[in-house]
Amino acid sequence: MILKNTYNEIIKIAAKPRTYISVIAITVLVGIILFAMKIDGQNYISFITASFEQTLSFEGKILNGNLMAFIILQMLIVQIPLLVALVTGDLISGEAAMGSLRMLLTKPISRTGVLVSKYMAGLLYTLILLLWMGVLSVVVGKMLFGDGDMMVLNSDGLVILKYNDVNWRFITAFGIAFLALATVATLSIMLSCFSENSIGPIVTTMSIIILFTIIGTLDVPVFDNIRPYLFTTHMAAWRSMFEDPLPFAQIKQSVVVLLTHIFVFFGIAVYQFNKKDILS
Amino acid sequence: MKLKIYSVLILFIFTLKLNSQTANTIIFKVYKKMMLANDYSVDAKIKSDIPMIKILPVNAKVYFKQKDKFKIESKSIAILPKQGFSDFSKTIKDTNSYFAMIAGEEMVNKTKTMIINLIPKMDTGDLVLAKFWVNKEQSLVYKSQLTTKSNGTMLIDYFYFNTEPQKYGLPDSMVFTVDVKKFKIPKAVAADLNKTKSSNNNNDKPVKKGKIYIRFKNYAINKGISDKVFAK
User: What pTM was estimated for this model as a whole?
Assistant: First the structure.
C-alpha cells in the first residue's frame, strides 16, 4: 500500500510545473558555467595558481572535466537546497491548502504511511535532481573538457588527484551530498506538517539554512560549541572525499550528524502529522 | 712607494683577469660538453614536495633540441620549477654578458668542485647572480644557484650515475629547491565556507622552501627529434 501510495505521490510531483523549475534551473546554471569556462577557463585557473606561478609551472591539462564537475558542484550546492525545498516543502502543506489532504487520509493507509509515501517520493525527487546535476557536471563536463588529473581547490592549498582515482570519489561525494539534501528535504517536510500553506515551509527552510550557515561561518568563539552540531556545517562534507588522505573521522562525524537530523526531523514530522487536526 | 702601489694594483688586476679567464675557460668547457647533445629525449619521474600542494609522483617525457627547444609531455598534472632546465646553457652562452669569477672550492656529494660566480654586466636583465659548482676534470655541474629578480633564488643539485649521459653533461637526477610564497585561495573560489580555521598553521610563514625531485631514465641522445614535437 505504501509503495502504491508512493507511486501516486511521484505522479503528483511529476505533474506539478514547479518540479521542472529546478531541473531547468540546474540545466541553465550548469550550461552557463560550462560555457563560461570553455571561453575563459584558463584565466580562472591562472587566477587560482597565480601565487605559485612565480616560481613553479603547472604542466598538463588542468582545465578538465573532473575540475569542472568539482567547480560546478561547489558552486551549485548552495542553491540546490532551495530547489529541493521548493517541492518537498509543499508535499503536506500544499495538499492542506488545496483541501485534498482530508480526502487523502480517508484511504486505507495510516497517517504515518501517507507521510512515509510522501517522504519517499520527496527523496526520489531529490535524488533525481542530484543525479541530473551529476550527469551534467561530470558526464557533460568530461565530454566538453576531457578527462585528466583533478586539481582540488582548498582555502589552505591544492590537492592534485590522479584521474583514475577520481570516479569513486565522485560517487561517494554524491552519496554524502544526497544525505545533506535529504536533511533539507526532511526539514522542509517536517515544517510542511506544521503549515497550511506552501510558502511558509519553503521560506522557513531557507531561513534556517541561511541562519545556520551564518552561525557556522562566523569565526566567533561563542558558536564553537554548537557549530559541530549544525547540519549546515556538514552540508559541504562531500568535499572531504577529495582530500588526500581522506579525513575518515570527519566524514563519519558528518554522516552521523546528518543522519541524526534526518531521524529527528522525520520523528517530529510523524508525531505532528499524526496529531494534526485536519479541518479542510 | 708609488711604484709599490702600482705594482700591487697591476698584480691584483692581473690576478683578477687570470681568475676570470680560468673561470671562463671552465664554464666554456661545460658549455661545450652540453652542446654535444644536439637533441635528447628522456623519461622522467617527477616527485614534488611543495608546501600546501599534495601531489603524487608523476611520469613524464622530456624533449630537448638545440638551441632552446624544450618540452615536457605528461598525461598527468606535473609541477615543475619555472626555470632551471635549460637555463644553464642560456645563461652562459653569451660570455660577454657576465663576469665569471672563481669563488673557492667545495666538496659536493664527495666530489671536488670549483665555485664559479657569474655576475651580469648589465643590471637590466632578470638574472642577479648565478653560482655554479663545477668539477673541472669532468666538466660537470654538481650544483647551481640562480638568483633572479622575478623568481627569487633556486638551488639545483645534479646527480650523475650513468656514464653515457655524463658525456653530454646530462644528469641522471636533479633536485630543485625553490622559494614558495604564501598561498591563499579566496574562500569564494574554494567554497570552503564552513572551514573557519585553517588546518595548515604553516601558512603564517610568508616564504617556504619546496623541493622537486626529478629522476631521468632512458636517455635517447642525438637520435633526432622532429620540430613538430615542440609545437603546441
Answer: 0.81
